[in-house]
Design a protein that fits this description.
Blueprint lengths: L5 E7 L3 H12 L8 E8 L5 H8 L5 E6 L4 H11 L4 E5 L3 E3 L3 H11 L5 E9 L7 H9 L14 E2 L8 E5 H7 L11 H9 L5 E12 L5 H22 L4 H7 L4 H26 L7 H28 L3
Parallel strand pairs: 1-2, 1-4, 2-3, 6-9
Antiparallel strand pairs: 4-8, 5-9, 6-8, 7-9
Amino acid sequence: MTTPAISVVIPTRDRAELLRASLRSLVDQDLGPDDFEVVVVDDGSTDHTAEVCASVAGEIRLVTHRIDPSGISAAKNLGIFLAAAPIVLFFDDDDVAAPDLLSQHLRCHRANPERTVAVLGHTTWAPHLHVTELMYWATEVGKMLFDYTCVTDGQVLDHTFFWGGRASCKRMLLASEGIFDPELRFGCEDIELGYRLSRHGFKVVYNAAARSFMNRSITFDEFSRRCERQGRSQHHFGGVLHGSDPSVRRYCAVDGAVEQWAEAAPHLAAQTRRVAELEILVATEGHPMRGAWRAELFGLYTDVFQALRLRGVALAAEGR
């Protein structure tokens, strides 16, 4: 078999049906079947992930490997070393690809052949999803998910734009200069690796035409858990691994986090209850108070999710 031009690495755990849609979107790419491969690393799934992979194995070049639950970094690292192509695209199991996603990543790499150049693609909500107030806040207000408002197509960016799930890079750079830190089981693993690679001139080029779509909604409870886990990772990144660098400490917001969490903690339960009330009230179309309720809800989202990140940092700092 010929060497593929690009390998798509997908870490996954217990998302079989989302993975199915993700793989189907890759089957439909405009590249020839020999031009790309898909590497699925099953991070200890207990559902029918293996059957989903088997269902598309005859339609694309598919490599699968199962490991005990080890976290996203370990799964990505294995994917790097299983990949055969010179370009590796890290892809999320809950995203679907536009038909030209892979060819767009390749086009940008051919225009930027230096081994230190990565490519960032564009992700938004899948068109079939109902964008809730929370989902709108996360992308357009709080900017905690795929925020592209501060970048332009073709812009050269720093390592903080090496976003997992929508970025590709040269495989040999990773193999020679560094891979993901396995202690980062969720969150910050991509930016932390980009930070280490920046010592070798690493940079990211944004290609707005490399499009993918997040294929599921998010709930308040889920996003709350995500924020606390993110805070734990921020502590490891900015407080443990690179705590001597003030710029990393600022990026990870670790300084003063314990004290800020102590101030925020007494208010969190009441704020969470009010969020639940407001999410119901804001759904009342045409009510004269809807605008005020929405503004209050967005403010509470900001306060609650910031507090939960602080809790993650504080608990990790205390060894809990």
